Amino acid sequence: MKFELGRCLLNERLMESGKSAEWLAKELLFKPERVYDFIENKRVMPLKIAISIADSISCDVRALYELISNDNEAM
Fold it and tell me: Highest taxon of the source (predicted)?
């Protein structure tokens, strides 16, 4: 099954973990603007970064985005 990426859920995951975007940026040695770009869907997280973010806030990497199934595939 194929999936499309929906909305970024990073802000929700940060709130659940009690962490801030600024904390995450400092933890991963990023500029805060980069984290905000992910949150605002201005930039898609590369897989390596998504894994690092998920590890930092103790969530599953799949929980960082809405996943929209693409069931309309031709067989």
Answer: Bacteria
pTM for the predicted model, two decimal places: 0.87
CA dist 24 and 75 (Å) reads: 42
Per-residue H/E/C for 34-59 = HHHHHHCCCCCCCHHHHHHHHHHCCC
What residue numbers bound the domain in which 23 lies?
3-69
What CATH number does residue 30 fall under?
1.10.260.40
Is a pLDDT exceeding 60 seen at residue 75?
A: no
**Residue pLDDT, tens place only, 20-46:** 999 999 999 999 999 999 999 999 999
C-alpha–C-alpha distance, residues 73 and 29, integer Å: 40
Residue 74 lies in a domain: no
